[in-house]
Amino acid sequence: MKDAIQMVDLKSQYLKIKPEIDKALFDAVEEVAYINGPQVKKFVSSLQKFNNVTSAVTCANGTDALQIAMMGLDFKPGDEVIVPAFTYIATVEVIALLGLVPKFIDVKEDTFELDYTKLEDVISDKTVGIIPVHLFGQCSNMEAIIEIAKKHNIAIIEDTAQAMGSEYIYQDGSKAFAGTIGDIGTTSFFPSKNLGCFGDGGALLTQNAELGEKINMIANHGQRKKYHHETIGVNSRLDTIQAAILDVKLGYLNDYSAARQKVAAKYDSAFNSLSGLNIPARAKYSTHVFNQYTCRIEKGRRDEFKSYLQEKGIPSMVYYPIPVHLQQAYKIYGYQEGDFPIAERLCKEVISLPIHTEMKDNVQNYIIENVVNFFK
Predict the structure, then answer these.
(1) Into how many domains does the chain fold?
(2) Dihedral sign, CA of 266, 272, 274, 278?
(3) Are 274 and 339 in a shared domain?
(4) How far is the C-alpha of 258 from the C-alpha of 266, rounded, in Å?
(5) Digits of tens for pLDDT over the chain (376 positions)?
(6) Does residue 3 lie within any of the structural domains?
(7) Phi, psi dihedrals of residue 176, rounded to the nearest 5°
(8) Residue 297 class from Cβ within 10 Å (0-12 exposed, 13-18 middle, 19+ buried)?
(9) Is residue 342 domain-shared with residue 266, that is, in the same domain?
(10) CATH number of the domain bearing residue 135
(11) How is 161-213 classified by DSSP, letter by letter?
């Protein structure tokens, strides 16, 4: 290829909407309200309306969003929170930082979601929360998780950092956006996310107005009124410039999802019959917005395949090479290799191919041609 292939082409995405983004940036700078400016309030309103939720609270990043959610739900040191062994470290990091205890659970090898059939085996009298991670762009089986959570009076925090805009499909056919189904949904606006800003950013969603007010206070030093601190909080704000950018891009989120789905469908068609490569599974209870297009490579050939792609000038990523329970920092919780065999195997098999909103046909055709040649 003449030009370098990108995992995510953020520059082309920006250039397509450059006049709107530039105006939003100029207006925010001219306003000189860099913290909690009017653009933040406008974006919060837009985010609530898009997701059809009672409350949206913005914050500095997706990791903070998870921490604020746990603080808002009054989790206390020693409480246990169930979390998949196959996820990004941030999901577990905040559990440890708050003195909580992560209780890992294995995942399903096709959809990568936590294995809800094993939830009751992990629940104890100390369990206060479950974190379904909507990994790579589609929802976990929320109805199954909610049924168990209600039975044991356990809160649900949806980690929606990779699935903003994905819709959960209930058994009766009705739909709800990822992050709006549990007690609190959290998300990240990291630049490469489906809805990404030009730096760090995050948000929380909830249908509980009282809880929404509480987490809004926590994110702002525990104050509802300036210098009146009602609860212990943190300093975690989405700055005005990022809010201005996100408010523009939110208007394109459905288009972005459709563009990613089109790329994924073309990959599917080309790879579905390849022996040794498993395309991403689609859960029947969720749409998929493909923050990543993550395949599984069989017979121990993942690393060989990755090296081959690199030689052809095709970038790829492994999300994630080590399961959380085997990370050095989390060995203190006593888990061993073999405890979560599916998560451990996925870490040796998964690989994500380039996918983004601006993928050109000739670029994708080149990627497809080379992938197919490897598996011939």
Answers:
(1) 2
(2) positive
(3) yes
(4) 12
(5) 668 999 999 999 999 999 999 999 999 999 999 999 999 999 999 999 999 999 999 999 999 999 999 999 999 999 999 999 999 999 999 999 999 999 999 999 999 999 999 999 999 999 999 999 999 999 999 999 999 999 999 999 999 999 999 999 999 999 999 999 999 999 999 999 999 999 999 999 999 999 999 999 999 999 999 999 999 999 999 999 999 999 999 999 999 999 999 999 999 999 999 999 999 999 999 999 999 999 999 999 999 999 999 999 999 999 999 999 999 999 999 999 999 999 999 999 999 999 999 999 999 999 999 999 999 8
(6) no
(7) -150, 145
(8) buried
(9) yes
(10) 3.40.640.10
(11) TT-TT-EEE-TTS-EEETTSSSSEEEEE--TTSSS--SS--EEEEES-HHHHH
Q: Which residue, 48, 280, 52, 258, is CA-closest to 174?
A: 52
- 335 near 325, Cβ under 8 Å? yes
CB atoms inside a 10 Å sphere around CB 300:
9
1 domain residue, yes or no: no
Distances 274 to 138, 295, 299, 360, 371 between C-alpha atoms, Å: 23, 12, 13, 23, 9
Of 38, 16, 15, give the one whose Cα is nearest residue 27: 38
In a domain, 218, yes or no: yes
The token pair that represents 169 in the structure block: 């499909």
Check if the beta carbon of residue 86 is closer than 8 Å to that of residue 232. Answer: no
Distance CA 24, CA 19 (A): 9
pTM value?
0.97
For the stretch 214-223, pLDDT in tens is: 999 999 999 9
Read off the CATH number of the domain in which 310 is found.
3.90.1150.10
| 86 and 70 belong to one structural domain | yes
C-alpha span between 59 and 118 (Å, rounded): 33
Measured CA to CA in angstroms, residue 134 lies from 83, 142, 178, 210, 221 at distances of 12, 10, 8, 25, 29
Q: Assess if residue 4 is contained within a domain.
A: no
Q: Three-class SS of residue 132?
A: coil
The dihedral formed by the CA atoms of 85, 87, 90 and 94, expressed in degrees to the nearest 10: -30
